[in-house]
Amino acid sequence: MNAKLLKSAAREVVVYLLCSGAVFVANATLYVAYFLVTRPKYTFLAGNTFVVLMMLAQCMAAFWYTCVRRSNGSAPDLPAFRYATSCVFAGLLILYGLHATVFTIVERSVSINVLRYLSTGESRPYPEIEKNFIETFVLRDKGVCKRLDEQVHLGNVSVDHGRYALTERGMRTFRTLDSATKVTADKAPKNAVSCDAP
């Protein structure tokens, strides 16, 4: 492989990474602004909707710019369209990864609740930590209500006269997730701390 070809390939990779990074930064800025302004009730659903709408809008803009806008009658620039949409997908994939693994999990996390409670610097006994979790995450923040409401909106749960039941779709979702949790289930370490200890 000659040096000129290698240099050209390296330049293409750098340009692609810069393009994808710019798409990520622009969309992450919009994502944070969107969440700060709207404070959506359903973080996961709102984030998914945001990412899908951004993808559609940016792919349509890329299509218009590379294929439709051409006023001189020349053929659409399909390689440029593929390149632009590839950058859009790469940038949004990184954003979706952050949305699914950081932003959504932080909002739902038992660990964050426990760490927040312990962040005062005081040591606390297990029963007090558990009581705080129930009082804040479950009762004050209505954690169970939020999750049930979200599952109703997703179509996994139906509600009739205040009674909740799994739909067929919900049963399929449960079976899929349940089989995944069996594979990834936490195994207690040999020297695990016992929460029941005085």
Please write out the topology.
Elements: H1 3-38, H2 43-68, H3 78-108, H4 110-118, H5 126-140, H6 143-154, E1 157-160, E2 163-166, H7 168-184
Antiparallel strand pairs: 1-2
Key features of this structure:
3 domains, 7 helices, two-stranded antiparallel sheet, elongated, mainly alpha
What does this protein look like?
This protein has helices at 3-38, 43-68, 78-108, 110-118, 126-140, 143-154, 168-184; strands at 157-160, 163-166. With 198 residues, the protein is mainly α. It has three domains: 3-108, no CATH class; 117-141, no CATH class; 143-179, no CATH class. Strand 1 and strand 2 (163-166) form a beta hairpin. The radius of gyration is 24 Å and the shape is elongated.
Q: How far apart are the first and last residues' alpha carbons, in Å? A: 68 Å
* Main sheet specs: 2 strands, antiparallel
Question: What is the radius of gyration?
Answer: 24 Å
Show unreliable segments: none
Mean pLDDT: 84
Percent strand: under 5%
- Topology, number of strands: 2
- The secondary-structure class comes to mainly alpha
SSE string = HHHHHHEEH
- Multimer state: single chain
How helical, in percent, are the residues? over 70%
Query: What is the strand arrangement across the widest sheet?
Result: 1-2
Helix count, per DSSP? 7
Indicate the overall shape: elongated
Number of individual domains: 3
